[in-house]
Amino acid sequence: MFLKVAAVAEAVGVDEKTVLNWIRQQGLPAYKQDERYQINRVDLLEWATAKGIVIPPGVFAANDDAPLLPSVSEALARGGIHYDLPGDSPETALREVVARLTLPPGLDPEFLLQTLLAREALGSTAFGNGIAIPHVRNPIVGQTGQSAISLCFLKNPIDFDAIDGKPVTILFTFVTVNVKEHLHLLAKLAFLLHDQAFQALLHAPGTEAEIMSAITALEETIIRR
């Protein structure tokens, strides 16, 4: 789960000095081992997403013989697309999101909400340009044993303390079966969201059919599983 500075630099297309600057000056979490920095892939993905830095999804690919991981379109088909969610704050909006998630038996929705809010308190999950990806650090296991993504469009713009200062109207939320699938889907979604045409469709907003078609096409042309 850990990457060396050189591996991060190569994957992102920058030099090692830039990565060291990210660690020392811009808050990229890293750990020292034998006087060398090690970077957790989860920390790298969350930090890069917040900073608007594109990280190729292959950096987070599984390196073993695990079964084929789900695509964003497959996960979104399970989680669903929801329009006109009410709310005037991150808490009230996320409460509406949680109410629409399929949760495993025994998982208290209020506990999940407070966990999401605690994650926001650590640092905004806003992606920028009115989009946020609220999530917890540990996966939420769904009833079906399959990972899902819900896409929710808010009635009112809400301040999520985004770096670009723009209020949020679009929320993607994850229900995943394990850390590997959580990381895989978050990386793929963050990569897809750098496509300007796709962002424009989300802000329209497009119909469910249009959004699903766009994601499927992007995954076929941009991301190879």
Descriptive overview:
The protein is an alpha/beta fold and 225 residues long. The protein folds into two domains: 2-55, Multidrug-efflux Transporter Regulator, Chain: A, Domain 2 (Orthogonal Bundle), CATH 1.10.1660; 72-221, 3-Layer(aba) Sandwich (Mannitol-specific EII, Chain A). Helix 1 crosses helix 2 (16-25), helix 4 (72-79) runs antiparallel to helix 9 and helix 5 (90-100) crosses helix 6. The chain has helices spanning 5-12, 16-25, 41-51, 72-79, 90-100, 109-122, 179-192, 196-203, 208-221, and strands at 2-4, 31-33, 36-40, 81-85, 126-128, 131-132, 148-158, 168-175.
Question: What's the gist of this structure?
Answer:
The protein is 44% helix and 18% strand. By secondary structure, the chain is α/β, with parallel strands linked by helices. The strands form two sheets. A five-stranded mixed β-sheet has the order 4-7-8-6-5.
How much helix, percentage-wise, in residues? 40-55%
Radius of gyration: 17 Å
Largest sheet, if any? 5 strands, mixed
Under the CATH scheme, which class of the largest domain? Alpha Beta
Named CATH architecture of the largest domain: 3-Layer(aba) Sandwich
Segments where pLDDT lies below 50 for 5+ residues? none
Structural class: alpha/beta
Distance between the termini: 19 Å
Q: What is the CATH T-level topology of the largest domain?
A: Mannitol-specific EII, Chain A
Tally of discrete structural domains: 2
What is the H/E order?
Answer: EHHEEHHEHHEEEEHHH
The CATH H-level homologous superfamily of the largest domain = Mannitol-specific EII, Chain A
Instruction: Please work out how many helical segments DSSP would assign.
Output: 9
Average residue pLDDT: 83
Which percent band covers the strand fraction?
15-25%
Shape: globular
The total beta strand count reads 8
